[in-house]
Amino acid sequence: MVSKKQPILKKISNGLTVGSVITGSTFFHGPPVLALGLTKLIKKSKKIDEANIGITNSWLSVNNWLIDHVLPNLKWHITVDDDLDLSMQGRYLMTCNHQSWVDTTVNQYFGLTRMPLTRFFTKWELIFIPFVGQAFKILGFPMMKRHTKEQIAKNPELKYRDLEEARKSCEQLLSQPFTLLNYLEGTRFSVEKHQQQNSPYVNLLKPKAGGLALALSILENEIDALVDMTIVYPDGAPGYGDFWLGEVSQIAVNLRKIAIPDWVRGGNYEDDAEYRARFQKWVDELWAEKDQLITEMKQQYAV
User: Fold this and answer.
1) How far apart are CA 160 and CA 152, in angstroms?
2) Inside any domain, residue 145
3) Is there a domain that residue 155 lies in?
4) Range of 294's domain?
5) What is the pLDDT of residue 227?
6) Which helix or strand (DSSP H or E) is residue 227 part of?
7) pTM summary value
8) What are the φ/ψ torsions at residue 123 (nearest 5 degrees)?
9) Of 81, 94, 122, the residue nearest 179 (C-alpha)
10) Is the predicted pLDDT of residue 3 greater than 60, yes or no?
Protein backbone atom coordinates (compact mmCIF):
# COMPACT_ATOMS: atom_id res chain seq x y z
CA MET A 1 0.00 0.00 0.00
CA VAL A 2 2.79 2.43 0.84
CA SER A 3 4.58 1.96 -2.47
CA LYS A 4 1.36 2.66 -4.38
CA LYS A 5 0.66 5.83 -2.45
CA GLN A 6 4.11 7.32 -2.81
CA PRO A 7 3.81 8.30 -6.52
CA ILE A 8 0.44 9.93 -5.85
CA LEU A 9 1.79 11.84 -2.88
CA LYS A 10 4.79 12.90 -4.92
CA LYS A 11 2.51 14.19 -7.68
CA ILE A 12 0.44 16.13 -5.17
CA SER A 13 3.60 17.61 -3.67
CA ASN A 14 4.92 18.56 -7.10
CA GLY A 15 1.61 20.11 -8.08
CA LEU A 16 1.34 22.21 -4.93
CA THR A 17 4.96 23.36 -5.15
CA VAL A 18 4.85 24.22 -8.84
CA GLY A 19 1.46 25.92 -8.62
CA SER A 20 2.45 28.01 -5.62
CA VAL A 21 5.86 29.05 -6.93
CA ILE A 22 4.74 29.89 -10.47
CA THR A 23 1.71 31.84 -9.21
CA GLY A 24 3.83 33.78 -6.71
CA SER A 25 6.56 34.41 -9.27
CA THR A 26 4.04 35.66 -11.84
CA PHE A 27 2.47 38.10 -9.39
CA PHE A 28 5.96 39.26 -8.39
CA HIS A 29 7.37 39.75 -11.90
CA GLY A 30 4.20 40.70 -13.80
CA PRO A 31 3.36 44.14 -12.37
CA PRO A 32 6.83 45.64 -13.00
CA VAL A 33 6.71 44.51 -16.64
CA LEU A 34 3.28 46.07 -17.11
CA ALA A 35 4.28 49.25 -15.27
CA LEU A 36 7.41 49.72 -17.35
CA GLY A 37 5.39 48.93 -20.45
CA LEU A 38 3.01 51.78 -19.72
CA THR A 39 5.94 54.21 -19.59
CA LYS A 40 6.70 53.28 -23.22
CA LEU A 41 3.45 54.96 -24.20
CA ILE A 42 5.08 58.21 -23.11
CA LYS A 43 8.67 57.63 -24.12
CA LYS A 44 10.36 54.78 -25.94
CA SER A 45 13.57 53.72 -24.26
CA LYS A 46 16.09 50.96 -24.90
CA LYS A 47 16.78 50.85 -21.16
CA ILE A 48 13.12 50.12 -20.46
CA ASP A 49 13.18 47.28 -22.99
CA GLU A 50 16.33 45.87 -21.40
CA ALA A 51 14.78 46.13 -17.94
CA ASN A 52 11.66 44.27 -19.06
CA ILE A 53 13.73 41.53 -20.66
CA GLY A 54 15.74 41.24 -17.45
CA ILE A 55 12.55 40.87 -15.40
CA THR A 56 11.18 38.29 -17.83
CA ASN A 57 14.41 36.30 -17.70
CA SER A 58 14.20 36.39 -13.92
CA TRP A 59 10.69 34.90 -14.15
CA LEU A 60 11.98 32.21 -16.52
CA SER A 61 14.87 31.45 -14.17
CA VAL A 62 12.34 30.61 -11.45
CA ASN A 63 10.65 28.16 -13.81
CA ASN A 64 14.02 26.63 -14.66
CA TRP A 65 14.87 26.35 -10.97
CA LEU A 66 11.65 24.40 -10.48
CA ILE A 67 12.59 22.04 -13.31
CA ASP A 68 16.01 21.40 -11.78
CA HIS A 69 14.78 20.95 -8.21
CA VAL A 70 11.20 19.68 -8.38
CA LEU A 71 11.96 17.37 -11.32
CA PRO A 72 15.50 16.23 -10.39
CA ASN A 73 15.06 12.85 -12.11
CA LEU A 74 14.36 14.43 -15.50
CA LYS A 75 17.26 13.67 -17.85
CA TRP A 76 18.22 16.13 -20.57
CA HIS A 77 20.01 15.06 -23.74
CA ILE A 78 21.08 18.32 -25.40
CA THR A 79 23.17 18.40 -28.57
CA VAL A 80 24.34 21.55 -30.35
CA ASP A 81 26.11 21.19 -33.70
CA ASP A 82 29.71 22.37 -33.71
CA ASP A 83 29.10 24.99 -36.41
CA LEU A 84 26.39 26.71 -34.35
CA ASP A 85 27.95 29.41 -32.19
CA LEU A 86 25.22 30.77 -29.93
CA SER A 87 25.45 34.07 -28.07
CA MET A 88 23.23 36.08 -25.74
CA GLN A 89 23.90 39.03 -28.06
CA GLY A 90 22.90 37.18 -31.24
CA ARG A 91 19.96 37.54 -33.57
CA TYR A 92 18.35 34.28 -34.58
CA LEU A 93 15.43 32.88 -36.50
CA MET A 94 14.44 29.50 -35.11
CA THR A 95 12.25 26.71 -36.44
CA CYS A 96 11.01 23.85 -34.30
CA ASN A 97 8.70 20.85 -34.41
CA HIS A 98 5.59 21.19 -32.27
CA GLN A 99 4.06 18.40 -30.16
CA SER A 100 3.02 19.88 -26.83
CA TRP A 101 2.65 23.06 -24.78
CA VAL A 102 5.80 21.78 -23.08
CA ASP A 103 7.80 22.66 -26.22
CA THR A 104 7.89 26.32 -25.24
CA THR A 105 9.07 25.44 -21.73
CA VAL A 106 11.84 23.29 -23.24
CA ASN A 107 12.85 26.18 -25.49
CA GLN A 108 12.97 28.55 -22.53
CA TYR A 109 14.92 26.07 -20.39
CA PHE A 110 17.56 25.66 -23.07
CA GLY A 111 17.72 29.25 -24.22
CA LEU A 112 17.74 31.18 -20.95
CA THR A 113 21.54 31.23 -20.63
CA ARG A 114 22.43 30.55 -24.27
CA MET A 115 20.27 32.77 -26.46
CA PRO A 116 18.30 36.02 -26.34
CA LEU A 117 14.71 35.94 -25.12
CA THR A 118 12.57 33.90 -27.50
CA ARG A 119 9.54 35.53 -29.10
CA PHE A 120 7.08 34.04 -31.54
CA PHE A 121 4.32 35.29 -33.81
CA THR A 122 1.04 35.69 -31.94
CA LYS A 123 -2.49 36.63 -32.92
CA TRP A 124 -3.51 40.22 -32.25
CA GLU A 125 -6.63 38.94 -30.45
CA LEU A 126 -4.39 37.77 -27.58
CA ILE A 127 -3.95 41.41 -26.61
CA PHE A 128 -7.33 41.15 -24.88
CA ILE A 129 -6.19 38.38 -22.51
CA PRO A 130 -5.46 40.10 -19.18
CA PHE A 131 -1.76 40.38 -18.34
CA VAL A 132 -0.61 37.78 -20.90
CA GLY A 133 -1.61 39.73 -24.00
CA GLN A 134 -0.22 42.98 -22.67
CA ALA A 135 3.04 41.29 -21.68
CA PHE A 136 3.44 39.85 -25.21
CA LYS A 137 2.97 43.32 -26.66
CA ILE A 138 5.35 45.01 -24.22
CA LEU A 139 8.05 42.38 -24.73
CA GLY A 140 7.99 42.79 -28.50
CA PHE A 141 6.25 39.60 -29.59
CA PRO A 142 5.15 40.19 -33.21
CA MET A 143 1.37 40.46 -33.01
CA MET A 144 -0.47 40.12 -36.30
CA LYS A 145 -3.99 40.92 -37.44
CA ARG A 146 -4.54 38.06 -39.85
CA HIS A 147 -7.44 38.24 -42.28
CA THR A 148 -9.21 35.20 -43.70
CA LYS A 149 -8.97 34.16 -47.35
CA GLU A 150 -12.61 35.19 -47.78
CA GLN A 151 -11.90 38.69 -46.43
CA ILE A 152 -8.84 39.06 -48.65
CA ALA A 153 -10.80 37.86 -51.68
CA LYS A 154 -13.31 40.66 -51.08
CA ASN A 155 -10.58 43.21 -50.39
CA PRO A 156 -7.15 42.19 -51.79
CA GLU A 157 -5.48 45.16 -50.09
CA LEU A 158 -5.90 43.38 -46.75
CA LYS A 159 -3.24 40.86 -47.81
CA TYR A 160 -0.61 43.56 -48.08
CA ARG A 161 -1.86 45.22 -44.91
CA ASP A 162 -1.16 41.95 -43.07
CA LEU A 163 2.34 41.81 -44.55
CA GLU A 164 3.02 45.40 -43.55
CA GLU A 165 1.89 44.67 -39.98
CA ALA A 166 4.26 41.70 -39.87
CA ARG A 167 7.10 43.79 -41.25
CA LYS A 168 6.63 46.48 -38.60
CA SER A 169 6.44 43.87 -35.85
CA CYS A 170 9.65 42.16 -36.94
CA GLU A 171 11.52 45.43 -37.43
CA GLN A 172 10.76 46.38 -33.83
CA LEU A 173 13.01 43.50 -32.75
CA LEU A 174 16.06 44.95 -34.48
CA SER A 175 16.90 47.33 -31.64
CA GLN A 176 18.04 44.40 -29.47
CA PRO A 177 19.26 40.79 -29.57
CA PHE A 178 16.40 38.38 -30.29
CA THR A 179 15.33 34.84 -31.05
CA LEU A 180 12.21 34.66 -33.23
CA LEU A 181 10.61 31.21 -33.14
CA ASN A 182 8.40 29.75 -35.85
CA TYR A 183 6.57 26.44 -35.44
CA LEU A 184 6.38 25.59 -39.14
CA GLU A 185 3.71 22.93 -38.70
CA GLY A 186 1.36 25.63 -37.45
CA THR A 187 -0.24 23.33 -34.88
CA ARG A 188 0.70 20.58 -32.46
CA PHE A 189 1.34 17.13 -33.90
CA SER A 190 -1.26 14.41 -33.39
CA VAL A 191 -1.89 11.09 -35.08
CA GLU A 192 -5.28 12.33 -36.26
CA LYS A 193 -3.84 15.47 -37.89
CA HIS A 194 -1.03 13.40 -39.41
CA GLN A 195 -3.56 11.07 -41.03
CA GLN A 196 -5.84 13.87 -42.16
CA GLN A 197 -2.94 15.60 -43.90
CA ASN A 198 -1.62 12.37 -45.37
CA SER A 199 1.76 13.74 -44.27
CA PRO A 200 4.76 12.31 -46.15
CA TYR A 201 6.79 12.44 -42.92
CA VAL A 202 6.84 9.81 -40.20
CA ASN A 203 7.16 12.15 -37.23
CA LEU A 204 6.00 15.53 -38.53
CA LEU A 205 3.08 17.37 -40.03
CA LYS A 206 3.53 19.21 -43.32
CA PRO A 207 5.47 22.47 -42.89
CA LYS A 208 3.96 25.83 -43.80
CA ALA A 209 6.67 27.83 -45.50
CA GLY A 210 4.95 31.22 -45.66
CA GLY A 211 5.84 32.39 -42.14
CA LEU A 212 9.50 31.53 -42.53
CA ALA A 213 9.63 33.16 -45.97
CA LEU A 214 8.09 36.30 -44.52
CA ALA A 215 10.52 36.47 -41.59
CA LEU A 216 13.52 35.86 -43.84
CA SER A 217 12.41 38.55 -46.30
CA ILE A 218 12.20 41.07 -43.45
CA LEU A 219 15.20 40.03 -41.35
CA GLU A 220 17.50 38.16 -43.77
CA ASN A 221 20.32 40.72 -43.60
CA GLU A 222 19.99 41.19 -39.84
CA ILE A 223 20.19 37.65 -38.45
CA ASP A 224 23.27 35.74 -37.36
CA ALA A 225 21.82 32.31 -38.07
CA LEU A 226 18.77 30.28 -38.99
CA VAL A 227 18.55 27.70 -36.22
CA ASP A 228 16.52 24.49 -36.27
CA MET A 229 15.55 23.02 -32.89
CA THR A 230 14.33 19.44 -32.72
CA ILE A 231 12.58 18.22 -29.56
CA VAL A 232 11.96 14.54 -28.85
CA TYR A 233 10.10 13.06 -25.89
CA PRO A 234 11.18 9.40 -25.76
CA ASP A 235 8.27 8.60 -23.39
CA GLY A 236 5.79 10.21 -25.78
CA ALA A 237 4.64 13.83 -26.04
CA PRO A 238 3.43 14.94 -22.57
CA GLY A 239 0.68 17.28 -21.51
CA TYR A 240 1.69 20.39 -19.60
CA GLY A 241 0.37 18.99 -16.33
CA ASP A 242 2.12 15.66 -16.91
CA PHE A 243 5.42 17.48 -17.29
CA TRP A 244 5.17 19.38 -14.00
CA LEU A 245 3.89 16.32 -12.14
CA GLY A 246 7.09 14.47 -13.00
CA GLU A 247 5.68 12.09 -15.60
CA VAL A 248 8.47 12.82 -18.11
CA SER A 249 11.71 10.89 -17.57
CA GLN A 250 13.84 12.39 -20.36
CA ILE A 251 13.85 15.01 -23.09
CA ALA A 252 16.19 15.14 -26.09
CA VAL A 253 17.01 18.41 -27.84
CA ASN A 254 19.11 18.97 -30.95
CA LEU A 255 20.09 22.33 -32.43
CA ARG A 256 21.60 22.71 -35.87
CA LYS A 257 22.45 25.64 -38.10
CA ILE A 258 20.61 25.84 -41.41
CA ALA A 259 22.49 27.35 -44.33
CA ILE A 260 20.39 29.90 -46.21
CA PRO A 261 20.85 29.54 -50.00
CA ASP A 262 21.74 32.70 -51.90
CA TRP A 263 18.65 32.39 -54.08
CA VAL A 264 16.41 32.73 -51.00
CA ARG A 265 17.48 36.33 -50.42
CA GLY A 266 15.42 38.98 -52.11
CA GLY A 267 12.64 36.70 -53.32
CA ASN A 268 8.93 37.52 -53.31
CA TYR A 269 7.08 34.58 -51.77
CA GLU A 270 3.64 36.14 -52.02
CA ASP A 271 3.64 37.21 -55.66
CA ASP A 272 6.23 35.03 -57.41
CA ALA A 273 4.76 31.56 -57.93
CA GLU A 274 8.05 30.08 -59.16
CA TYR A 275 9.95 31.40 -56.15
CA ARG A 276 7.18 30.21 -53.81
CA ALA A 277 7.35 26.67 -55.21
CA ARG A 278 11.14 26.60 -54.94
CA PHE A 279 11.04 27.91 -51.37
CA GLN A 280 8.43 25.33 -50.34
CA LYS A 281 10.56 22.56 -51.87
CA TRP A 282 13.58 23.78 -49.88
CA VAL A 283 11.57 23.72 -46.65
CA ASP A 284 10.21 20.25 -47.49
CA GLU A 285 13.79 19.01 -47.88
CA LEU A 286 14.77 20.51 -44.52
CA TRP A 287 11.73 18.84 -42.98
CA ALA A 288 12.70 15.47 -44.47
CA GLU A 289 16.13 15.79 -42.84
CA LYS A 290 14.46 16.71 -39.56
CA ASP A 291 12.11 13.74 -39.82
CA GLN A 292 15.09 11.39 -40.17
CA LEU A 293 16.83 13.10 -37.25
CA ILE A 294 13.79 12.56 -35.02
CA THR A 295 13.72 8.87 -35.93
CA GLU A 296 17.41 8.55 -35.03
CA MET A 297 16.92 10.42 -31.74
CA LYS A 298 13.99 8.19 -30.81
CA GLN A 299 16.10 5.12 -31.45
CA GLN A 300 19.05 6.53 -29.50
CA TYR A 301 17.02 7.41 -26.42
CA ALA A 302 14.40 4.67 -26.56
CA VAL A 303 13.05 3.79 -23.12
Assistant:
1) 9
2) no
3) no
4) 73-116+177-300
5) 97
6) strand 225-232
7) 0.88
8) -80, 140
9) 94
10) no
